[in-house]
Amino acid sequence: MLFRGCCSWKIILSVLFLSTVLFIGLQNSEKLKRIEFSSIPRQLYELSAYFGSKFYNYQARVRMTKSKMELLKKGSQYLEENAKEIMSLTKQINLMKVLLKDIRDQMDNYVMNAEADVTAELDESEVTEEEMNLVNYILKKLREDQVQMADYALKSAGASIVEAGTSESYRNDKAKLYWHGIGFLSYEMPPDIILQPDVHPGNCWAFPGSEGHTVIKLARKIIPTAVTMEHISERISPSGSTASAPRDFSVYGLKDDYNGEEIFLGQFMYNNKKGITVQTFKLQNEDVGSLSYVKLKILNNWGHSKYTCLYRFRVHGKPENDGLE
């Protein structure tokens, strides 16, 4: 009986010991599970975010490549569709370059031949040193500007047109820009073309009718002394006529405001029958002081009923301060 009681107590103690060990083990395993399994979702999130950003960047590069490819395709299609026109324009440009080079060479040869002919004729006959110097002086003058006076209405020097004081330009329906043979935009030469030295047929400012005006802001303040009017010759006019050239015109000066009082400087006539395309006129009223603006009024032309053409207009004088260049 006593033996049985001791065994039962041993069994009970063993069961309690095992239960305690199991309980402690289970608690530790739960902690391990929480630690391990709680870190797994965070690692998975970090991995998914990393690879997601990589995948997004890859897609972005693919989209950019596709857009670039589409632009390249459109560009190549445009070039293919307009290849003939581009080649034609290229040929025309090259042809123009050749023609300009030939013209320049011919002009150089003409001047050189003229000098050689004159020199040869003079060598054949007995000439004095004074006559030779005179011929050289004339040839030198042919190469220089015919006016030999500073132009204070020159655009490249700082002069400009006052649009508010200038007549409207003549609109020519035949003068249009074309694209694929279709005229879509009319154009006309601006008024400031008269302030530039490039004088050739068609490169002029035209205004409707025979009367017009423009105001020029001079490159600097001057005391005006003369003006120069220039037109093309009938010999190089495509129509063989210069009826659109200005005839009678008057010139006025303005001090510091283009809307101010107009000071009469003179009235003149450009003679297109004279044979001289560049004509200079001394002002009839020089005692006016320094001026910042000049107004040109065209009173009539040489018979053209639709428009008048101005090629170039110059203003000469003395700077307000001679010490400045």
Descriptive account of the structure:
This protein is α+β, with helices and mostly antiparallel strands and 325 residues long. The protein is built from 3 helices and 11 strands. The chain has helices at residues 2-81, 83-124, 129-143, and strands at 160-162, 176-179, 182-186, 205-208, 212-230, 248-254, 263-269, 278-282, 291-298, 307-310, 312-319. The strands form 3 sheets. Strands 1, 5, 6, 7, 8, 9 and 11 form a 7-stranded antiparallel beta sheet that branches. It is elongated, with a radius of gyration of 46 Å. Residues 175-186 have low confidence and may be disordered.
What is the oligomeric state here?
single chain
Shape: elongated
Structural class: alpha+beta
The number of helical segments is 3
How are helices and strands ordered from N to C? Answer: HHHEEEEEEEEEEE
* % residues in beta strands: 15-25%
Q: How many E-type strands?
A: 11
Q: Distance N terminus to C terminus?
A: 141 Å
Largest sheet: 7 strands, antiparallel
Features:
325 residues; alpha+beta; seven-stranded antiparallel β-sheet; two-stranded antiparallel ribbon; 3 helices; 11 strands; 23% strand
